[in-house]
Design brief:
seven-stranded antiparallel sheet, Alpha-D-Glucose-1,6-Bisphosphate, Chain A, domain 3, seven-stranded mixed sheet, TATA-Binding Protein, alpha/beta, 544 residues, binds 1,6-di-O-phosphono-alpha-D-glucopyranose
Length: 544
């Protein structure tokens, strides 16, 4: 097998963001762009030499091309075994499961998550370490440092591998194993959840569910687990065939983009339970009939009910949430007498806490939740958790959540996104806000008294590493909060996210609309940051 050394020029824009390197497809198609980044991974991670690497993606446009490039470069960079999902597919949580199960040395996941796909859409590449989780900052920064100097890359001269035939192939010294992307993951789910009980729920005939795979990677997983193994009727899974452009849709499981299940879970004919997952299968949205469960509430309900679920019967050790996620789960942790950690946005920050056995469950406001079963957030896992809970409690989604509020109080929550604003304007807005922080504590803003105002900094309790400037927090005496952050996953301009939370203990007020409760706080948030003046935007592009 002939090994080739190709010359290239370093690129200076390959610093991974919140979740890997995300760019437009056309950026990745620039000659040597992907190859350079891959060479930086191989050079900076000597543990891969002679080792096992897992590779798969969400099936979006350029997935197959990228996998052929990875195969050729892996062979030339001394990988001994390459495990690839059949058809080039692996959901992010399934990749994590497979890395752990086969004790691989790392994994490469190709996805731009919930961002749109197709030739004009986005593409992305993430490196996961041997624990199955996203590479921590120390490693992503090291990879970035290598990208600044990489001026050649190694690959082999070979024909493409047929990604659609399961089995083993050899490429020089390297063994390529093309495996079923679903089987190992489905087996893990059957260990965590009471499949027998869930089958009974479906068999009763009174319970109706919809799962929207959004033409993304979870389609095959959901067809197999929900319909084939749990007996949900055919048609339960919609948009279940993965497509390179996600059928022209935006594979983001929120109220705007997953509108079909929102409509079909509304009114007297609405289904009892509906859920959706994103491009790479790590996000989830949970709906009951006429009821949306915020991701922050979903995490809190899971924590409060974990002891009812087969895989968590022994109880949970601790929980964690990202800083902008509502504090609903904190109240559950306090009640249970377990630790609750507040981390920066990015699943990688949960890694050490999970590995160290400090937490069992974790989640984020950005439609992600997970547990120590894999080292990634896991969309279908969350859906199965809820299904199992519905089967145990035999109550509706709305009943379970409102009962939860009755016990713990309600954390009203909303997020405003201002997308594709000018990067410079966004930086200035954040800098000016930072300048004002020292003067805010003690001030009263529209009747809300500021208790603290800071730029969130996190010190990992396991390895002592510190991450600064992780979002501006303004906390009020009445328990409400405003958080400002710039997204680390966009591919065009900057996205300003404003997260708002208000706590309400009074049962009589729990039925109020979120928009009504949050109105005054939203005014405070937009005025304080001078959003209109600094960005030219009168309104957010997305509200979740
Ligand atoms: C990624 C990260 C999450 C993060 C989300 C949003 O999710 O894994 O931890 O909450 O991005 O990040 P940002 O606010 O910086 O855009 P995903 O599903 O996109 O991989």
């Amino acid at each position: 097998m002939k090994s080739i050394l190709s010359s290239s020029q370093p690129f200076n824009d390959q610093r991974p963001g919140t979740s890997g390197l995300r760019k437009k497809v056309r950026d990745f198609q620039v000659p040597h762009y992907l190859e350079n980044f891959l060479q930086a991974i191989f050079d900076s991670q000597p543990v891969l030499r002679g080792g096992t690497l897992v590779v798969g993606g969400d099936g979006r446009y350029y997935n197959r091309d990228a996998i052929q490039i990875i195969i050729r470069m892996a062979a030339a960079n001394g990988i001994s075994t390459l495990i690839v999902g059949l058809g080039g597919l692996l959901s992010t949580p399934a990749a994590s499961c497979i890395i752990r199960k086969y004790q691989a040395n790392g994994g490469i996941i190709l996805s731009a998550s919930h961002n749109p796909g197709g030739p004009e859409g986005d593409f992305g590449i993430k490196y996961n370490t041997a624990n199955g989780g996203p590479a921590p900052e120390a490693i992503t920064e090291l990879i970035y440092a290598y990208t600044r100097t990489v001026d050649c890359y190694r690959s082999v001269d070979s024909d493409s591998i047929n990604l659609d035939i399961a089995g083993e192939h050899r490429l020089g010294e390297m063994c390529i194993k093309l495996i079923d992307p679903v089987a190992d993951y489905a087996e893990l789910m059957s260990e965590l959840f009471d499949f027998k009980l869930i089958r009974k729920l479906f068999a009763g005939g009174n319970f109706r569910m919809l799962f929207d795979a959004m033409h993304a990677v979870t389609g095959p997983y959901a067809h197999q687990i929900l319909e084939a193994q749990l007996g949900a009727p055919a048609g339960t899974v919609i948009n279940g065939k993965p497509k390179e452009d996600f059928g022209g849709g935006h594979p983001d499981p929120n109220l705007v983009h997953a509108h079909e299940i929102v409509a079909r879970s509304t009114g007297v004919d609405g289904v009892d339970f509906a859920a959706a997952s994103d491009g790479d299968g790590d996000r989830n949205m949970i709906l009951g009939r006429d009821f949306f469960v915020t991701p922050s509430d979903s995490l809190a309900v899971m924590a409060a009910n974990a002891h009812l679920i087969k895989g968590y019967r022994e109880g949970i050790r601790g929980v964690a949430r990202s800083m902008p996620t509502s504090q609903a789960v904190d109240r559950v942790a306090e009640h249970l007498g377990i630790s609750c950690y507040e981390t920066p946005t990015g699943w990688k920050f949960f890694g050490n806490l999970l590995d160290d056995g400090r937490i069992t469950l974790c989640g984020e406001e950005s439609f992600g939740s997970g547990s120590d079963h894999v080292q990634e957030k896991d969309g279908l896992w969350a859906v199965l958790f809820w299904l199992n809970l519905l089967a145990v409690r035999r109550q509706s989604v709305a009943e379970i959540v409102t009962e939860h509020w009755r016990t713990y109080g309600r954390n009203f929550y909303t997020r405003y996104d201002y997308e594709e604003i000018e990067s410079e304007a966004a930086e200035i807005l954040m800098d000016r806000l930072r300048d004002r922080l020292p003067n805010l504590p003690g001030k009263s803003l529209r009747g809300h008294k500021v208790e603290y105002a800071d730029d969130f900094s996190y010190t990992d309790p396991v390895d002592g590493s510190t991450s600064e400037k992780q979002g501006i927090r303004i906390g009020f005496k009445d328990g409400s909060r405003i958080v400002y952050r710039l997204s680390g996953t966009g591919t065009q301009g900057a996205t300003l996210r404003v997260y708002l939370e208000a706590y309400e203990a009074d049962l009589a007020k729990h039925k109020k609309e979120t928009a009504e409760v949050m109105g005054p706080l939203i005014k405070v948030a937009t005025k304080l940051a001078k959003i209109k003046a600094r960005t030219g935007r009168r309104a957010p592009t997305v509200i979740t």
